[in-house]
Amino acid sequence: MQETLAHSLDQSLTTSKFHLLNGALSHIFSDLFTIFIIFFGAQAVLQNQITLGQLIAFHLLAGNVSGPILSLASLWKEWQH
């Protein structure tokens, strides 16, 4: 009985660590994507290749695309467990 409980707790801890790591990586990639857009977009604005409004619009649209994708990834993780 105690072995079963210990095994169950061990699996629960492993799953929790996986979810924590996966969530952290998801946020890191999201933040890196935002930094990438702002960095290269700012360079394009300074070189008059695009306007500031276009950069802001692209950033908002990118968020509207990446948000649902990250939500689907979270749903997929929950569905597997």
What does this protein structure show overall?
Residues 1-81 form the ABC transmembrane type-1 domain. It contains two helices and no strands. The model has no long low-confidence stretch (mean pLDDT 84). The radius of gyration is 20 Å and the shape is elongated. The chain has helices at 2-46, 52-80. The protein is mainly alpha-helical and 81 residues long. Helix 1 (2-46) packs antiparallel against helix 2.
List the main descriptive attributes of the protein structure presented here:
2 helices; elongated; mainly alpha; single chain; 81 residues; 0% strand
Taking Cα atoms only, what radius of gyration do you get, to the nearest Å?
Answer: 20 Å
**SS-based structural class?**
mainly alpha
- Shape, per Cα inertia axes: elongated
Report the biggest beta sheet as strand number plus sense, adding barrel if it closes: none
The count of β-strands is: 0
Distance between the termini: 23 Å
**Percent of residues in β-strands:** under 5%
Low-confidence stretches: none
Give a brief rundown of this model.
It is built from two helices and no strands. The chain has helices spanning 2-46, 52-80.
How is this fold's topology laid out?
Elements (H helix, E strand, L loop, with lengths): L1 H45 L5 H29 L1
Helix pairs in contact: 1-2
Membrane topology: Multi-pass membrane protein
Keywords: Membrane, Transmembrane, Transmembrane helix
GO cellular component, one term: plasma membrane
